[in-house]
Every structure is written in structure tokens, then in C-alpha cells.
Prior knowledge:
- It contains 16 helices and 19 strands.
- Helix 1 (60-71) runs parallel beside helix 2 (118-125), helix 1 (60-71) runs parallel beside helix 10 (294-306) and helix 1 (60-71) runs parallel beside helix 15 (543-556).
- The two termini are 16 Å apart.
- It is an alpha/beta fold.
- The strands form 4 sheets. Strands 1, 2, 3, 10, 11, 12, 13 and 19 form an 8-stranded mixed β-sheet that branches.
- The radius of gyration is 23 Å and the shape is globular.
- The longest helix has 27 residues, at 200-226.
- One of its GO terms (biological process) is carotenoid metabolic process.
- Residues 60-555 form the Amine oxidase domain.
- Pfam families: Amino_oxidase (PF01593).
Amino acid sequence: xxxxxxxxxxxxxxxxxxxxxxxxxxxxxxxxxxxxxxxxxxxxxxxxxxxxxxxxxxxxxxxxxxxxxxxxxxxxxxxxxxxxxxxxxxxxxxxxxxxxxxxxxxxxxxxxxxxxxxxxxxxxxxxxxxxxxxxxxxxxxxxxxxxxxxxxxxxxxxxxxxxxxxxxxxxxxxxxxxxxxxxxxxxxxxxxxxxxxxxxxxxxxxxxxxxxxxxxxxxxxxxxxxxxxxxxxxxxxxxxxxxxxxxxxxxxxxxxxxxxxxxxxxxxxxxxxxxxxxxxxxxxxxxxxxxxxxxxxxxxxxxxxxxxxxxxxxxxxxxxxxxxxxxxxxxxxxxxxxxxxxxxxxxxxxxxxxxxxxxxxxxxxxxxxxxxxxxxxxxxxxxxxxxxxxxxxxxxxxxxxxxxxxxxxxxxxxxxxxxxxxxxxxxxxxxxxxxxxxxxxxxxxxxxxxxxxxxxxxxxxxxxxxxxxxxxxxxxxxxxxxxxxxxxxxxxxxxxxxxxxxxxxxxxxxxxxxxxxxxxxxxxxxxxxxxxxxxxxxxxxxxxxxxxxxxxxxxxxxxxxxxxxxxxxxxx
Length: 572
């Protein structure tokens, strides 16, 4: 599973240079160069102003969808409002420092085959790979103390023995013994086999029936009866096992929240079990792209181009055009119309997609459902560039700070995540320097910022106040050798940064849909030929989920035969 603690996807975009012009990355042959080649910006989309499929937004979900469509030999055009591709997952450079703006803690990039994560399978289909550094730990700072947490089947025992109750190790073993047998079922049906029509009976149900049956047989009677729990909240499994240790309950809540933006009572058991299978098995490792998380986006764009796809930057979609009841294209901010011969796919959030549509063409039930969907909160961010002198040599890449368990991991100003990727990838910073990204993970209330003028003294004062918790966390993690006044780069991002640059309604991280109380919407819409992918659709929030959603939409727009041939080609 490709994962990123601190919300796998949905972290803010920090575009410090913008353009209203369009900048298209052209169609190219299979022997394309290994780096993205960008033509100078132009005021209109060059070439033909049409495509089989037009994709709105170049987030991971949109790029996965577009790349696979190009692989399927469809003429696809991605329209991105910003002047850099990647949406929330892009990277940016200032004064020689290369910053991540999105996910930073990954695993599973090198996995292949049936149980590989969806993003790895998409990259495999596009003939792309991502060189990574491997590691197995992160620093944890909690009210009980601080420790180096290692992944693996038994490494966590020593932490439980020190910080939890005497029964904690036995409870943790009990949890692993109960859920790891379920992981085979959770991983037996690859998301890339799913499509949004009856063809799924061939590409998923029939194709993987033997492996599903084998998984259920291998689970034994108890595991087979427990399989329905995969679609229930993970807290129900913990309750059924009578797990009482507060440290374990808090730790699992933290993992769930970092994974999907909800605690254990709101996350699907299948998602947590998948994560446990990846992180608590023998020989497991974490991975970080050697060229930064932006390399994920570069690889997806290379794959898109390799198969003839196009991406137009600085192309802000103002409206989705509906003619005779069908989505037929989009209108750009400058007035240009781009025709979509087969479909329009929106990688925007459900609320922002709604705002692109003519209201008189939509059923009120659809409008009401979107408007009534609860939202996750937004973010505060801190990007720093500073001298490494005086810092300890064993500084790790990741640090998690929890100030109070009693307030809950979803409380504002309570949890701070810190990434120092230059520890593993020195090329992300000038020689002898470090690059750092700290953030509060989807817990910052938008209401505090709503209506503020970004140029006002009130806004600047609130930025200083609300960023202080991150500064204190950074100082705790880096120690006395760090001096905030000596940072060469200091950038603070707020929910208004999200709203403005990510085009995210109220700066939200995404839908706050609780397992057992609701489900993420599918990918079709009431408007024929209009589809959606990304964190507002099934399977939900996070890098694996949005990659899978993009793949599902792409699969749905081609024949069952083409879909099956792709599954054969990547060995699943």
C-alpha cells in the first residue's frame, strides 16, 4: 500500500508563481525522454481543442485515470489550473530547497502483482518506476514520553512494555492474530480489476473467484465468518476482542486518523487491515522517493505522455458544458471551449465539481446530497529551509507529536506531523542544509479563517498564533541545535491557502464519511458522460484510494476486452 502519514493526499498546494496562460505538455512517442519537457506557456491550448476524454485536474487520481486512458489508446487531455502538475501532491522549489506539499510517508512503491497497491499497479501499466530510499522507523512524541517506533511484527512490543499497561503486549498480539488472517481477503481483489458497469463480473468477480475462494479457505472458519467485518468500522473489531488498554486504543486511533482522516470508529476495517498487513509483517519497510514526492507526479506525467496523452497547465476550467443532457466538454476561464467526444472526468472535489455544473441540469436530490456531505477540516502548514549544522547526526525523516490524548487525535492544534526528507535525499536541499515540512493533519477549522483578508494585519496575526504549535513541535523534534530565527526559508500555509490555490471548497481535506454510517459515492453522475474520481469518490481518501478511483473510471470508459488485456499485461 502506498501510504502517507499525515493524510496520504490532500495536503496543500503552495504555488508561489502563477500564470493565466496555458502550458501544454505535448503528446509524445514511447521513446520519450525521462524528464518532463515543458513548452513555453501560450494563451490557448495548442493543437486540437478536443479529446476523447477531458480530465479536470492533475491530482494523483486524475493523472492515474488519464495515464491509463492513454495506455488504452484513448485521446486524453488533462486540464490543470495551476502552472505545476500534481494538485495537492506536487512539489515546489524556493532558494534551492525542494519542498513536498503533499504525501511524504510511503510504502509499497516496489510491490508488483495481485496484491500490489493501486498506484504501483498504475505505474507498472505505464512502464514507470520510482527510485526510493528505504527505512523502517519514525520518531513519536506523546504525553507518556518519546520513542523511535519501528514497523515489523514484534518491534512495537518494547514500546508497549514501556508506555502501556502490563496486558498491552498480549492485547496487541490478540489484535494481530485476529486481523492478519483477514488481510488475504482484503487484498484478494485488486482495485484495478473494478469497473463501473456489468463488465465487472468478468474483470473482477469471475477472474478472481479462485483467489478469493482460496483466501477464504485459508482464513479458516473463524476468519471466514469474520470477513463481513471488512466493511464495518475497525473499532468494532477492537470492541469484539475486548481490547481495553488506553495506549493501544489511542495508537490505533492515531494510525486511522493519519490514514484516512477519521478515527478507528470511522474507518473501514478493510483499509486498516491492509495497512496492518503492510506494516506489521516480516521484512517490511517504508519508502521515500529519492527525488522527493514530486517524483510520483513526474512519473505519472511521463507515463501519460509516453502513450500520447496531453496535459495543459494554467488552464482553469470555469464550466462543464452540458448539451442535450450530456457532458460534452468544458469552458476555460479565457472563454475557450474544449470538446470531449466521449467523457469529461472531474478530479475536483464533489463540492467544486457541483459548482462547475449548470444547476438547472441537476436533480435536487444530487445537489442536496453533495451539500449535506460532511467535510473534514483543513490544514496549517510550515515549510522551512535551514542549516543542518548543530543538529544531531541521527536525525530521522519523520516525527509525530501528540500533545494530549484526552482531547482526541482529531482535535485542532493537538497533533503535528513533521517530515525532514533531506535526511534521506540530500539533493532536496543545498549542501549542508535541510528541508522540512510540518503540518496539522486536517484538523484546522475553516471557520476561524473564513472572510479574512489575506493582506490584513488580523490574518497575519492569526497565522502567527496558529502556526506556533508547529514551531514548538519542530523545536521539540530537532532539539536545541535548531533556531527558528536562522531559517533561510519560512512559509506558513492556512486553510485560505487551500481554498485559493487548491480550489478546494472551504479548504477541506475531503468528505468526512464515517464507516458504517455512509459510503463514498460512485464515479458516475446524474449527467451522462460526466464522471468523477479522487477523494470524493469510492474508495475514499488517501493515495491508494485516489489512484484506485482514477483507474476505475478509466476502466469504465473502455471495453471489457481492453481492460482484461491490461490486467494480463501487468500480471494481475
